[in-house]
């Protein structure tokens, strides 16, 4: 801000000396040769301004050449030329644009403007670039202004707006002009109008322009400062902590510093003589009261600076008033900016809530995807499969291996999904046949045996793939995010997972309610003996059901691997959450699993929003919440009733 | 202990005698007491193993006798370790800080000592204030009381919540696992007040015993662990032999029936749960000074599963089984994962046990669950000529208690 002001002053001071009345760029250069040769940021402003304002079509080329260090003087006659480097030396072009032969390097002094001067030239060039025939150059000029707006830009920008033909660039120019107006325009009413014209716009550029207007400094004074734009008066003790208030006084030199314990210690050490300080024996100083006595004695002897006591601190604070003062002197502008920011933050809040809901929804679909296989093996068959997480991991590694074989990402994902299903289906069937079948009546031991398998599978994956994370790269069309505005956005990959979760929900419902297999599964689950007498082979059905649940876990693994790192611990990160999802939702009901995943997803995102820095805490509170939730609904959100409940 | 309970548990005397012999042997072979055949670090390993036996004993009590598969006992174990670790770390840092300040000219004030300790301990997590939970860390008796009180209270509250809402079986297992995970995740945070994932370290140095070498300290802790195990075994044997033991076994076998007989099932379960949590915490308080370091990874859910593995392999429902399982599996594990086991060359592939031990353990666990549900302890039944009915095959009637095909054949 201060630099901008200084430049403004410089521009105004040098605006119109008598020498600057020439018409063409060439004449201007010649007349101001001395200034140009020894150009410095302080003195060159008027020359550049005159060049830019000359109306000579060659002026832009001259300025550009100057900024590029391609402007030079012929030593023999002091004439200016635009230089083009050639093997022999320079090809010369005079400032009017006509070729003027060539010259050896020794005959020419090339001008080397410093960075300050180049900055001024760049500012002057803006008006040319803003009316450049090439729309890409105009857009680039706008972007450069937006990056580093200066008060000088406002006028050329407004001027070029009228001549603009491209509607997209017109809109950008108009927006940028309003942003510059609200910051730099000299007239207060115009600025307020510019602020109000935005309404509750969500653009980050608008907030970036408004926030500096509301920057405050905190001052301590005995009376309200004259003419200052005061944001608020602070009440010590409530608006500002007493310590902070006193520190402000100390920083302003209005009160002596308080004595810290470290300073006191240093002072006592410095004045210790012959085993005592201020009449107190050093050996007795293991006590704060004794140290205070010793220091007071030193104070009275004038050996150490007087430290402020509590009473003095209180008195000093009481004698002063504390204010937040806006750097922006115009109260109308700050009021308007505050109102605008309040409007914006309300809208931003609403948008953030929407964004958070989208995040929560995508987290819920991840949990749902991880848990849906479990909803079959645990929910329908009541088999605790602690290796479920490792089936997810197995699916993710299958995806990784597929990508190693098929380099095209789109094809490999399409191949990996059925491959993962096949691999984990086979693993699930094998596990059911070899282990779980023998343990149907001993659920606790199923838990332990499957955990043994889980340990073995994890170590096996570690032995084969190593401990470092393996990438599972998503195809390019899943990169990026769907951006609604500056606040709300969701990555395509999360949308894909959401869609996948919905597809699996549909698949589950279809298999369970509409197919022969689903009918038999339900029959075997309800009463295996009766199902067997009706000609259903319970062993086969159990095997297929378990395979199906495991296969879905594998597919979920591919989906999860796309956004998480594939490691051997991938599964164990999800296993507890998956069980929680099923238990909270209500065992044996797919809608319950859906409700559980939604509840957990939203709850976790909610906690993360309250305490954004700490996802660990969010998980902790999540689990505590689930433990408490089970107190009130031990059978989950959607509990089976009657005989279907099983007990 | 009544004579009746002793006669019903002849294993107690055998066990205590074996333990005493073992302790004496280790003492006389240790570096501290003469022979020097057992290195100090191995004495520590043996001491730690005895602590693990104690927690396995507690696990057997809750799982093998009461039928509650708790996957949260390592949380109590680690909490016990944290409680004693807080005192060890505080007291030792205090010694260091006082020495450092005394060398700086002025005798330190209590405030300076406190600040010095706080910045020493919490410097690594960027803090300089002692959190409120360290309020009693300066006092050994208080922290010793907390070793019992904190895990005991946690077990009481958690158990009360879980049992009163009739959470049983695998649900309870998953819930206890969730509790452990929640606690571990909480302690992993730097602002949890227990140094985040740095944990507490330097616990092998006992304040006030600097003059005693690590060789003697290791023997002392070995004795303490052996004494704790002996007492724990006697206590557990007494608990399971009386009427109380009958009731908890009955709860294991048919909870509803016991409830209908008029027993307050929840009270019994809560008592066992809390008692085992306290035993576990004491084991933890003895274990971590020998291990020297504790961090939240110690209470990862996997640790509690390993505990279940020990008990299952050793043999559930018999106290010596748990102890045998803990000794056998934990010593074998440390032998295989310590890189001391020779590689197995299969010609086409060399099996490195460091990599493959977990797989062998996992699979053998499956095999034990499937084919030897009574574990190593079952071998004693073979010696004694006892045989359990073969419960495999399809049930011949409704309900879990019905005869099975294989049973009926005999």
TrEMBL record, chain A:
Subcellular location, principal: membrane
What are the TM regions of this chain, as residue ranges? 360-380, 412-431, 492-512, 543-563, 575-603, 615-632
Q: What does the record list as GO biological process?
A: amino acid transport
Q: Does the keyword Transmembrane helix apply?
A: yes
Q: Name one GO cellular component term.
A: plasma membrane
Keyword terms, alphabetized: Amino-acid transport, Cell membrane, Membrane, Signal, Transmembrane, Transmembrane helix, Transport
Its recorded name reads Urea ABC transporter permease subunit UrtB
**Annotated source species:** Phaeovulum veldkampii DSM 11550
UniProtKB/TrEMBL annotation, chain B:
Question: What protein is this chain from?
Answer: Urea ABC transporter permease subunit UrtC
What are the annotated GO cellular component locations? Answer: plasma membrane
GO MF terms on file? branched-chain amino acid transmembrane transporter activity
Topology in the lipid bilayer: Multi-pass membrane protein
- Pfam families per record: BPD_transp_2
Keyword list, A-Z: Cell membrane, Membrane, Transmembrane, Transmembrane helix
Q: What parts of the sequence cross the membrane?
A: 12-38, 50-68, 74-91, 143-163, 170-188, 220-240, 267-287, 293-312, 319-336, 356-373
Compartments it resides in: Cell membrane
Q: What is its main location?
A: membrane
Say yes or no: keyword Lipid biosynthesis present: no
């Amino acid at each position: 801000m201060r630099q901008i002001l200084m430049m403004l002053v410089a521009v105004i001071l040098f605006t119109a000396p008598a020498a600057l009345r020439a018409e063409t760029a060439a004449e201007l250069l010649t007349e101001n040769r001395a200034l140009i040769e020894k150009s410095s940021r302080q003195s060159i402003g008027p020359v550049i301004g005159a060049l830019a304002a000359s109306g000579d079509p060659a002026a832009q080329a001259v300025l550009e050449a100057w900024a590029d260090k391609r402007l030079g003087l012929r030593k023999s006659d002091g004439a200016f030329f635009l230089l083009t480097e050639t093997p022999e030396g320079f090809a010369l072009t005079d400032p009017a644009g006509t070729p003027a032969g060539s010259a050896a390097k020794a005959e020419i002094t090339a001008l080397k403007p410093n960075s300050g001067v180049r900055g001024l030239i760049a500012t002057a060039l803006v008006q040319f670039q803003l009316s450049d025939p090439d729309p890409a150059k105009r857009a680039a000029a706008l972007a450069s202004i937006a990056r580093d707006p200066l008060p000088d830009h406002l006028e050329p920008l407004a001027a070029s707006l009228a001549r603009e033909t491209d509607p997209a660039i017109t809109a950008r120019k108009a927006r940028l002009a309003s942003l510059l107006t609200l910051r730099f325009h000299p007239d207060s009413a115009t600025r307020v109008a510019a602020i109000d014209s935005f309404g509750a716009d969500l653009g980050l550029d608008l907030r970036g322009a408004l926030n500096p207007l509301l920057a405050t400094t905190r001052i301590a004074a005995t009376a309200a400062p004259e003419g200052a734009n005061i944001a608020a008066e602070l009440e010590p003790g409530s608006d500002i902590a007493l310590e902070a208030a006193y520190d402000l006084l100390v920083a302003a030199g209005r009160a002596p510093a308080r004595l810290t314990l470290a300073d006191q210690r240093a002072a006592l050490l410095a004045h210790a003589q012959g085993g005592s300080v201020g009449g107190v024996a050093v050996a007795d100083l293991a006590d704060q009261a004794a140290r205070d006595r010793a220091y007071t004695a030193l104070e009275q002897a004038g050996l150490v600076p007087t430290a402020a006591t509590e009473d003095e601190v209180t008195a000093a604070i009481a004698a002063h008033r504390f204010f937040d003062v806006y750097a922006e002197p115009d109260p109308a502008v700050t009021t308007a900016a505050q109102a605008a920011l309040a409007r914006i933050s309300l809208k931003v809040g609403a948008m953030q809530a929407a964004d958070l809901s989208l995040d929560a929804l995508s987290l819920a679909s991840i949990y749902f995807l991880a848990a849906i296989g479990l909803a079959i093996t645990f929910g329908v068959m009541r088999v605790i499969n602690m290796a479920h997480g490792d089936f997810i991991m197995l699916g993710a590694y299958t995806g990784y291996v597929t990508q190693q074989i098929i380099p095209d990402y789109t094809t490999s994902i399409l191949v990996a999904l059925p491959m993962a299903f096949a691999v984990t289906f086979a693993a699930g069937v094998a596990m059911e046949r070899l282990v779980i079948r023998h343990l149907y009546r001993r659920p606790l031991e199923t838990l332990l045996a499957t955990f043994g398998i889980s340990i073995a599978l994890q170590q096996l994956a570690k032995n084969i793939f190593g401990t470092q994370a393996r990438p599972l790269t998503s195809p390019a069309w899943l990169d990026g995010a769907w951006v609604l505005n500056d606040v709300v956005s969701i990555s395509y990959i999360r949308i894909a997972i959401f869609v996948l979760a919905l597809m699996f929900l549909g698949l589950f419902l279809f298999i369970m309610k509409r197919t022969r297999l689903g009918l038999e599964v339900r029959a075997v689950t309800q009463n295996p003996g009766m199902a067997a007498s009706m000609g259903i082979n319970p062993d086969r059905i159990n095997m297929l059901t378990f395979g199906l649940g495991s296969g879905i876990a594998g597919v979920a693994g591919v989906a999860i691997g796309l956004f998480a790192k594939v490691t051997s611990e991938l599964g164990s990160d999800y296993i507890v959450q998956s069980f929680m999802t099923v238990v909270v939702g209500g065992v044996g009901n797919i809608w319950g699993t859906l409700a559980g995943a939604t509840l957990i997803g939203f709850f976790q995102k909610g906690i993360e929003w309250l305490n954004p820095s700490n996802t660990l805490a969010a998980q902790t509170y999540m689990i505590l919440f689930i433990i408490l939730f089970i107190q009130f609904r031990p059978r989950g959100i959607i509990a089976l009733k009657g005989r279907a409940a099983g007990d | 202990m009544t004579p009746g309970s002793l006669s019903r548990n002849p294993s107690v005397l055998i066990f205590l005698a074996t333990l005493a012999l073992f302790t004496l042997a280790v003492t006389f072979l240790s570096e501290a007491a003469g022979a020097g055949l057992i290195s100090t670090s191995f004495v520590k390993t043996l001491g730690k193993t005895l602590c693990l036996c104690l927690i396995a004993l507690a696990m057997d009590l809750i799982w093998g006798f009461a039928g509650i598969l708790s996957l949260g006992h390592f949380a109590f174990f680690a909490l016990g370790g944290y409680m004693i670790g807080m005192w060890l770390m505080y007291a030792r840092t205090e010694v260091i800080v006082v020495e450092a300040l005394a060398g700086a000219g002025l005798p330190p004030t209590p405030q300076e000592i406190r600040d010095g300790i706080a910045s020493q301990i919490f410097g690594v997590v960027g803090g300089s204030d002692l959190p409120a939970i360290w309020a009693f860390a300066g006092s050994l008796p208080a922290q010793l009381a907390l070793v019992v009180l904190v895990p005991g209270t946690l077990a009481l509250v958690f158990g009360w919540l879980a049992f009163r809402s009739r959470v049983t079986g695998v649900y309870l297992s998953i819930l206890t696992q969730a509790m452990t995970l929640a606690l571990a995740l909480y302690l992993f945070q730097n602002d949890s007040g227990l140094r985040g994932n740095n944990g507490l370290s330097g616990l092998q140095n006992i304040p006030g015993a600097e003059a005693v070498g690590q060789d003697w300290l290791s023997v002392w802790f070995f004795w303490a662990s052996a004494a704790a195990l002996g007492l724990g075994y006697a206590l557990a044997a007494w608990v399971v032999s009386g009427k109380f033991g009958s009731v908890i076994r009955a709860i294991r076998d048919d909870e509803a029936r016991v409830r209908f007989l008029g027993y307050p099932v929840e009270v019994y379960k809560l008592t066992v749960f809390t008692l085992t949590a306290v035993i576990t915490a004491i084991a933890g308080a003895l274990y971590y000074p020998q291990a020297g370091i504790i961090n939240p990874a110690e209470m990862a859910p996997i640790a509690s599963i390993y505990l279940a593995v020990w008990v299952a392999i050793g043999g559930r429902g018999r106290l010596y089984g748990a102890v045998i399982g803990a000794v056998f599996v934990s010593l074998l594990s440390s032998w295989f994962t310590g890189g001391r086991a020779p590689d197995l060359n299969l010609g086409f592939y060399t099996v490195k046990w460091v990599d493959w031990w977990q797989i062998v353990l996992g699979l053998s666990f499956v095999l034990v669950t499937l084919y030897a549900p009574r574990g190593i302890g079952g071998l004693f039944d073979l010696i004694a000529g006892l045989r359990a009915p073969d419960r495999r095959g399809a049930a011949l009637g409704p309900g879990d208690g019905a005869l099975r095909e294989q049973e009926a054949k005999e």
